[in-house]
Amino acid sequence: MPQRYGWAGPTLLCLLLACSVTAFAQPAVAAPREAVPSESLTGAWMGPDGEPLPFQNHGEVLEFLRTAQVVNRKPAPEGINKPAVLTLEANGVRARAVLREVASEKKRIRIGERFYFHFFDSYANECAAYELARQLGLGFVPPVVPRGIGRPGSVQLWIEGGRDASDKSFRPRSPMGWMKQVWDKDLFDNLILNVDRNPGNMLVGPDDELWLIDHTRAFQPNAELLAPEALQKINRKVWDRLEAMSDDELKDVVREFLSTDQLAGLLKRRELLQEKVGELVAKSGEDAVFY
Fold first, then answer.
1. What does the pLDDT look like over 153-176, one tens digit per residue?
2. Could you count the other beta carbons within 10 Å of the beta carbon of residue 235?
3. Can you give the pTM of this predicted structure?
4. How far apart are CA 132 and CA 134, in angstroms?
5. What is the spatial distance between Cα 67 and Cα 155, in angstroms, rounded to a whole number?
6. Using the 8-state DSSP alphabet, how is residue 130 labeled?
């Protein structure tokens, strides 16, 4: 059963509380990935041998995922929808990727405390999450493309060296840098109504960068926010990008992957986010809300 929201478990809760308390007391260290990343990916992705992959931008990564030969396939170690781990090769370059093929729709179900009259669990939602995160300048969803390996599915670049966010030994070197990534995650998950966020689909990279994976249960049509109480600080650059898009522009980012009902839910949730952020600003002022 998917968890209702975010950081489940006492260890992770304590970690977040510790970060919020100690963030201003720690010496400054290099923060994780900027929220609005460069398109250059030199050294950002690693191969199975631990060496950086030679891709220079998103386009090269996506082309590799679309066209590289599958030289090995095995079941993923985790995942209720039975994803597979692929080894891909093209022009002497090898990289691993996750294949997801789930594509189901259910009517009138309850998951946790939430009811759904129309529930989507689909590889296409993974593609939509990547495209939207990239459009907003959020670099924490790994590149993914729609690709059928026998049947329709998605292929997403594997995060080599990533560990589950539930790892008890994890202590961020920059508590404030980590908290900014968590705040960005909270905004994103509210926007896409990702009902299956849990520590198993949040990975920590070698530089304390947060990676968000497995969005097959995001983009539900419900016109409601996932957890508005989690919204504490808002990334100014990300927020400006979200507000600047017209309804048609926002839909165009993900139209290829989502149903009409899912698109309508996305637009409504942006409206709800605007209302919520407006309330926060009215109460505390812009300087206290935006960073």
1. 999 999 998 888 888 888 999 999
2. 22
3. 0.86
4. 5
5. 11
6. H
Domain boundaries, the chain: 10-289
What Å distances lie between residue 92 and 52, 54, 100, 145, 205, CA to CA? Answer: 13, 11, 25, 21, 25
- 3-state DSSP call for residue 287? helix
d(CA 144, CA 56): 16
What's the full length of the chain, in residues?
291
Alpha helices for 28-174 (secondary structure H): 58-67, 123-136
Question: What does the alpha-carbon distance between residue 42 and residue 129 come to, in Å, rounded to a whole number?
Answer: 23
47 neighbors 160 (Cβ within 8 angstroms) = yes
- Which pLDDT value is given to residue 29? 34
Question: Residue 284: what are its φ and ψ, rounded to 5°?
Answer: -120, -15
Torsions phi, psi of 237, nearest 5?
A: -65, -45
Give the Cα separation of 198 and 188 in Å (integer): 14
What are the two backbone dihedrals, phi and then psi, of residue 61, each rounded to the nearest 5 degrees?
Answer: -65, -45
Q: What is the pLDDT of residues 209-260, one digit of tens each?
A: 999 999 999 999 999 999 999 999 999 999 999 999 999 999 999 999 999 9
